[in-house]
Amino acid sequence: MDTDTPNDATAGPSLSASDEGDRHPKAGSATSVEGDSSKNESICLIVLGMAGSGKTTFVQKLAEQLYENETPGYLINLDPACQDMPYPATIDIRDTINYKRVMKEYELGPNGAIITSLNLFTTKFDQLVTLVEQKKNSHKHFVFDTPGQIEVFNWSASGMIITESLASQMPTAVVYVMDTVRNKNPATFMSNMLYACSILYKTKLPLVLVLNKIDLQSEQFIRDWMTDFEKYLDSLEAEQGFITNLNRSLALALDEFYSDLKAVGVSSTTGMGMNEFLLAVDQARQEYIDIYLKERTQLKESARQTILSSNMSNLTLKEGAIPEEDEDDDEDEVP
């Protein structure tokens, strides 16, 4: 991007097949999610995670694994503040939005500039959705790498627009990356579970938990805490204080929600667990078709039936409801 152009900071994305490298010119035509979702095997993966969880490194290793499986992924970077990109992004928000110029011109801090950059990018997000639709017959996985500040994407209007735009067109799942080493602390574990559950019910999409860095720390203790309430309580016994009581209460309330989440142990350094993750992704895609898509279709049909069954078509105007035009008033009007 030419940083000397004054409008670079606020320019909306202008995407085309040539912009992202048309390596598959025979891609099929675009179809809606209500069409052949069960026949096409493609899926969008929105990768979220707290800062330092190894999210971008995970996307890099996932890209390598997909390439080795001869099913190259379609990689989209949505982090405008990313400095070093360890993987070749097919579409990169940084090619369209100048993060530092946004920060300077709008007099914003780092997080405010990221939100504004995403907002600017979202104004033309339909172009990216069109490209994804055109490529879904030649790519199975469309991976969206989001900003490291999870709240910037998950709780912003632009993040919701991006998620809903993708989910309305093709199978979509959320990938939540957790740092296994940091989660040895029961309070950190519960914070991640709270985030995961809130994301799950906010997006209403399948969610896959990635327990990252298992080359440094086994993820078994997290699986135990997720599935055995008593084991988590035992881990809190050594700690006392308000935060311990809060975590105990949260575990009691959230246990039934996070105990059934799909969790996969992965090492973004060695690639351990990547095949298991791809199997979990296939299950998430089927879950989208069996649950999310059916619910969405039922809601649309219910809304349609409500409109059809309403008495609006039987409404009649009472005499005098619309007053007749007064000829005297017309004569008094100034031409």
Instruction: Describe the largest sheet.
Output: 7 strands, parallel
| Count of strand segments | 7
Mean pLDDT: 82
User: What is Rg?
Assistant: 25 Å
Euclidean distance between termini CA atoms: 57 Å
Question: Which structural category do the helix and sheet elements fall into?
Answer: alpha/beta
As a percent range, the share of strand residues is: 5-15%
Helicity, in percent? 40-55%
**Helix run count:** 12
- CATH architectural category of the domain at 37-75 and 139-305: 3-Layer(aba) Sandwich
Shape: globular
Provide a compact summary of the structure.
Strand 5, helix 7 and strand 6 form a beta-alpha-beta unit. With 335 residues, the protein is of the alpha/beta class. The protein is 46% helix and 11% strand.
Task: Describe the SSE topology.
Blueprint: E1 43-49, H1 55-68, E2 74-77, E3 91-92, H2 99-105, H3 110-122, H4 125-135, E4 141-145, H5 150-154, H6 157-167, E5 172-179, H7 186-203, E6 207-212, H8 220-227, H9 229-236, H10 242-258, E7 262-265, H11 274-309, H12 327-332
Parallel strand pairs: 1-4, 1-5, 2-3, 2-4, 5-6, 6-7
Write a concise keyword list for the protein shown above.
disordered N terminus, 12 helices, Rossmann fold, seven-stranded parallel β-sheet, alpha/beta, 335 residues
Task: Explain what you see.
The chain has helices at 55-68, 99-105, 110-122, 125-135, 150-154, 157-167, 186-203, 220-227, 229-236, 242-258, 274-309, 327-332; strands spanning 43-49, 74-77, 91-92, 141-145, 172-179, 207-212, 262-265. With 335 residues, it is of the alpha/beta class. Strands 3-2-4-1-5-6-7 form a seven-stranded parallel sheet, with helices on both faces. α7 links the parallel β5 (172-179) and β6. The longest helix is centred in the last third of the chain and has 36 residues, at 274-309. The termini are far apart.
